[in-house]
Amino acid sequence: MYKLIDGKAVSASVKESIRKELAELKETKGLTAGLAVIIVGEDPASKVYVRNKKLACEACGFESFEYALPADTTQEELLNLINKLNNDDKVDGILCQLPLPKHLDEKLVINNISPKKDVDAFHPENVGQIMIGDYNYLPCTPAGVMELIASTGVEISGKECVVVGRSNIVGKPMAMLLLHQSGTVTICHSRTKDLAECCRRADILVAAVGVPNLITGDMVKEGAVVIDVGMNRLDNGKLCGDVEFETAKEKASYITPVPGGVGPMTIAMLMKNTLTSAKTKLK
Ligand code: NDP
């Protein structure tokens, strides 16, 4: 019988502990924390994420600064804003909502955010630090997945871990975090020869693909922990993961739902990184 991993509940408890910690530091040391979110253009999904981030900031007691820029913003204008925020003491974290309109260079934007305020952990300096296991920030989605696995009480050490997807923002850092916890990690991608066979080996299976219902129950090992990062919008408007929940739950010991699994954790981890950044002002 599977157990549902309740991402909303874990996320709420992470945010509550952040709120408490900041409130105490505010009272004892006058600490404040602020997150700046930049959104360029009118992407509806991005707008929802930005709104959720603002709500999470309010819940944690952070100041939030929102910069909604028109779709025709130039590269120079965007970099100027980032530079201004890099030098603003009230801003501890800077997040530029991706994807950006095509005429803007995402790599350049990421590289211009100060690594100290890079609460998404996308800057090459932070990525390198994650690689060597000596980091200030963890990328939000993989870090959220680690919290969800921890909430099950299942040990990662020595387990077969399979990550499906190798993107820079989810798959690769996910694999690295599982490796840091001594999992035996396999990364699958679109060229993997026998995806089903690889997945069936997994004690811990993380799907971060972007293909609705790709992972079906017959690809899941009996008793596996199944984490579904996928967020796919179907034609009927419904949100759907990369895992076929109804069949996978018959095999899994623990499984995340979509929505209400990994999604809420990503924002909670963003809050955690912002507090980490703010606390460096105390040193
Ligand atoms: P990308 O498109 O950047 O990467 C997808 C990966 O999946 C690639 O490595 C690709 O392989 C692999 N892939 C594609 N098709 C297959 C297939 N048929 N079999 C095996 N592997 C395949 O996506 P992201 O990593 O950015 O996101 C993945 C999913 O997670 C999306 O649904 C996204 O919406 C969601 N997401 C959710 C978040 C949350 O907060 N819950 C946050 C971020 C993402 P290859 O490299 O060979 O092309």
CATH architecture of the largest domain: 3-Layer(aba) Sandwich
Distance between the termini: 49 Å
The structural class is: alpha/beta
How do the SSEs run, as a string of H and E? EHEHEHEHHHEHEHEEEEHEH
How is the biggest beta sheet arranged? 6 strands, parallel
Number of helices: 10
Number of domains: 2
* Residue runs with pLDDT of under 50 for 5 or more positions: none
CATH topology of the largest domain: Rossmann fold
- Overall geometric form: globular
Topology:
Blueprint: E1 3-4, H1 7-29, E2 34-40, H2 44-60, E3 63-69, H3 75-86, E4 93-96, H4 106-112, H5 124-131, H6 140-152, E5 160-164, H7 171-180, E6 184-188, H8 195-200, E7 204-207, E8 225-228, E9 232-233, E10 239-240, H9 245-248, E11 254-255, H10 262-279
Helix pairs in contact: 1-10, 2-10, 6-7, 6-10
Bound molecules: NADPH dihydro-nicotinamide-adenine-dinucleotide phosphate.
Task: Write a concise synopsis of the structure shown.
This protein is α/β, with parallel strands linked by helices and 283 residues long. It is built from ten helices and eleven strands. The protein has a six-stranded parallel beta sheet.
